[in-house]
UniProtKB/TrEMBL annotation:
Organism: Litoreibacter ascidiaceicola
Claim: Cytoplasm is one of the keywords in the record: yes
Written domain comment of the UniProt record: Has three domains with a flexible linker between the domains II and III and assumes an 'L' shape. Domain III is highly mobile and contacts RuvB.
Localization of this protein: Cytoplasm
Protein name as it appears in the record: Holliday junction branch migration complex subunit RuvA
Domain DNA helicase Holliday junction RuvA type intervals: 1-62
């Protein structure tokens, strides 16, 4: 299994690139969002990859992060969602957007992807909703494994009461939920308050904490 490629980008097309790795060229298909951040021809590039194996086809798909790769792996387990549909969803929403949409049950956001109908979008949400928080929590685990520390902004309004509630007996689950929300772009103070409130409402495990906190952080109409 080819899990990662590092080499020189030879050329770019609309939906794929050719990467030279030690004189061997690998054609790698990517989402539009991934294509947008890749370097130009002749420059160094590194992508996590997933190999699609069929009787008449071997096809590599590339991702800038392991979270994006994991969402691709999850999406293609849904009946009716192939690799092309997965790329369309990731192109439209990105991994963070998929995390929010699936966790909150927002199938309309999934339906916005090219070629995805309402029935397929609903099926994605239904089948992956319980698995989404675990994928989101990967962000915190990966950051910890890489020695990355997400610090609160100096001027962030996190009061002592919030910090105390976030660091209770279920501190590990709350820390994972907090890290996942921060990786989604929420401010540390807002995320900490939401996690604390979710814990106060009875949520204990990481998936439940993330789901409840996301609902609390969702814009109020």
């Amino acid at each position: 299994m080819i899990g990662k490629l590092s080499g020189r980008l030879d050329y770019r097309a609309t939906d794929h690139v050719l990467i030279d790795v030690g004189g061997v060229g690998y054609m790698v298909y990517c989402s539009e969002r991934t294509m947008a951040v890749l370097p130009g021809p002749g420059e160094a590039v590194s992508l996590f990859t997933e190999l699609l194996v069929r009787e008449d086809l071997l096809q590599l798909f590339g991702f800038t992060t392991l979270i994006e790769k994991e969402w691709h792996r999850m999406l293609i387990t849904v009946q009716g969602v192939g690799a092309k549909a997965s790329m369309a969803i990731l192109s439209t929403l990105g991994p963070d957007g998929v995390s929010r949409a699936v966790t909150l049950g927002d199938w309309n956001a999934i339906k916005a992807a090219k070629g995805i109908g309402p029935k397929t979008a609903q099926k994605v949400v239904l089948e992956l909703k319980d698995k989404a928080p675990k994928v989101m929590a990967m962000g915190g685990s990966l950051a910890a494994a890489q020695g990355t520390v997400v610090a609160a902004p100096e001027n962030d309004d996190v009061n002592d009461d919030v910090i105390e509630r976030v660091t209770t007996s279920s501190a590990s689950s709350q820390a994972e939920a907090l890290s996942a929300l921060i990786n989604l772009g929420y401010a540390h103070g807002d995320a900490a308050s939401a996690v604390a409130q979710a814990a106060g409402d009875g949520a204990a495990e990481t998936p439940a904490l993330i789901r409840t906190a996301l609902k609390l952080l969702a814009p109020k109409e």
